[in-house]
Amino acid sequence: MEVEAGLEPQGSHESALNSYHLNNGYLGAPNGSRSSRPSSSLRRHLACSFIAIVTLCLIQLGISIMHLSSTPADSLALESRIMDLPRAPELDEDANNHDTINEMDYFINITTPQPQLTLVHFDPKFLGGYRNQHMRFVAFVDFAVQHSIPQILLPSIRYGVAQGEHRGRDVSFEYLHDVVYWNERADKAGLPRLVRYDASVLEGRRRTNLDDNNKTTPAIACFNTSSNLYSGLSEQLLRDPNTNIRKVNVWEEIGSLVGYSHCRRLPPSSTGQNHQVSEDGGDEFTYLIAHGGSKGIGRLWADYNMMQRQRGKAEQTNTIDNRTTIYPEHVPVEKAINTILRPSKAIRKAIKSAIQSSTTTAVDQQQLRASPKFLALHPRIEHDMLRHRCSRFMEQNLTKVFDHLRGDCSHNVDLLFLAVNIELVIAEPRSTLSSDLRELALENVIVLNRTRAYGLFGSESSVGIPMFESGSRTAENILFPEEPMDYSNADITPRLVSSKSLGITDLVASIVNFFTIIEADRFVGVKGSSFSTDLFSVRYYMGKGGNYILSAEGVEELVGPPPPHSCN
Question: Residue 377 forms beta bridges with which residues?
């Protein structure tokens, strides 16, 4: 996982946001209704689908009531767990729902935008490894919450592949995460909804303009649906895998084209003003607000680090099993995100199948108990981490790592789940590594293969704790709709393709490993890894105990949430 220093970036985006509070004033516009409009597919079937319409209306009524009755305290009181919150009965993924509500119809309906402020991520994708991207996403959502922006533009939220042969590839948020699940709970959690782009709702003119043929001229769109980028940005430049986005000041390009000045708008002031549409651009207006990282490590990374520093100011009064927690809890926005963000349906089913398959095989071969307990380990021994500045917090010798597991953390467990990027472990060490690190990398592969064969603490003469892996092997067989998805017609069944053909196997593998560890009975992670730190956090808010921090000195049980991610 990539780890970055928490330095405040310099650039015009920051200064523009600061100057906004000194000179603010937008023309007002009435707020839009919260109720979603039915899709075209539903309208075509009104005569023969009365039951489906009634059911859909009841769902929307429930969402509206939940929105109207929610208070700020609701987000603090939300303690449901990510994987276990109840779904609407008609959307139970194990039931046959196609006779009542088509899943695509429901997705289209629940992601329909309203004429309200909508935050757009202007970078082509989040930067870093999977959990570093998640941390930037948290900061992005927090920005929307702090500025009372009720919607986030879904097609602008994209995750990228940080390394490997497909480095530079990216994919839409809904392929990786359950958007319906998020939107069903967003209002109560105090978080913005994720919405599709609809120019007829989010863009407009203050006056009706007619062309030479007496036809209404369309409003200038501030979002490009073909590139999923803010209008005016160069897709060829920003999606080129050889482009270092950290050196491109994307914010400077927004609104620079003639006629697009209204697209470069700033958020409402935190002083209470809530102007809905931009004042610039003459007749043109937009509900879209662009926000992102800009140059360097990016504003989102700096903002996330600021959120972690705010944790240190909180009072610590929690006790768990009569033991006082060491570190403060996260800020409310991050806690709420940890409760409603879960993997997409395709990834969840693959994780469930992989765990069941591995445990069933182990039970049959090793004669284990019917419901075996498993220990998850994230050792971070990939070659890129062996020379990383955060590696000084970690034990990098896999033999010593396994020795540290002897004791309470492995007591009475039946299986070991190992979460590593196997390709980056078994690859030939690069010449850029020192001779000592190359030797260590080769030794780790030998130890890994021996543990695969004989189990944890096992040998040729005695069987140890069986080990299983998932990651890439599970991820490459997961099927996703072929991009781009067409949400204009719910009756069209998209063609399914593998994550491998999309070039996102490494990214999906990280998600598979992450949420497999969430299900573990015990977890051993490392300080200095954003992946491990986030696992400690999510497991804590799900009520999962048995969390341990591994260092060169040994293993120590973590009580409560983890310390903020840092390599300092």
Answer: 418, 524
For the cut 70, the answer to whether the pLDDT of residue 91 exceeds it is no
Closest CA to 518 of 500, 502, 541, 499: 541
Residue 377, H or E segment: strand 374-377
Say if CB 422 and CB 469 are below 8 A apart. yes
Other C-beta atoms within 10 Å of 186: how many? Answer: 25
Give dist(CA 473, CA 455) in Å, integer.
19
Q: Is the peptide bond prior to 484 cis by the omega test (within 30 degrees of 0)?
A: yes
Q: Which residues contact 272 (CB under 8 A, 6 or more apart)?
A: none
Residue type (1 letter), 355: I
Give the Cα separation of 40 and 114 in Å (integer). Answer: 17
Q: Identify whether the C-beta of residue 500 lies closer than 8 Å to the C-beta of residue 476.
A: yes
> Cα(421)–Cα(436) distance, rounded to whole angstroms?
21
Cβ(453)–Cβ(365) under 8 Å? no
Strands 547-551 and 522-526: parallel
DSSP state of 289: E
Residues 417-436 have pLDDT tens digits of 999 888 888 888 888 888 88
Contacts of 562 (CB under 8 A, 6+ apart): 327, 533, 536, 537, 540, 547, 549
Instruction: Enumerate the H helices of 12-119 as residue ranges.
Output: 12-20, 40-44, 50-69, 72-77, 103-110
Let me know the angle formed at the C-alpha of 134 by 131 and 136, rounded to the nearest 5 degrees.
Answer: 120
Of 197 and 395, the one with more pLDDT: 197
Beta strands in 138-227 (DSSP E): 151-153, 158-160, 170-172, 193-195, 203-205, 223-224
- Between CA 203 and CA 338, with CA 230 as vertex, the angle to 5 degrees is 95
Cα angle for residues 188, 194, 199 (degrees, 5° grid): 135
pLDDT score at 25: 32
Q: How many Å is the Cα radius of gyration of the chain?
A: 25
Rounded to an integer, what distance in angstroms lies between the CA atom of residue 131 and that of residue 2?
9
How many C-beta atoms surround the C-beta of residue 345 within 10 A?
13
Cβ distance 181 to 87 under 8 Å?
Answer: yes
Confidence (pTM): 0.76
The span from the CA of 279 to the CA of 23, in Å, is: 12
For tokens 């591995």, what's the residue? Answer: 358
358 phi, psi to nearest 5 deg: -65, -45
Q: Supply 415's token pair.
A: 């299986």
Strand partners, 436: none
> For the chain, what's the residue count?
568
The token pair that represents 351 in the structure block = 């994780």
What pLDDT is attached to residue 341? 95
CA distance 94 to 381: 38
CA distance 284 to 164: 43
Residue 545: burial class (beta carbons within 10 Å; 0-12, 13-18, 19+): middle
SS3 310: helix
Contact 82, 341 (CB under 8 A): yes
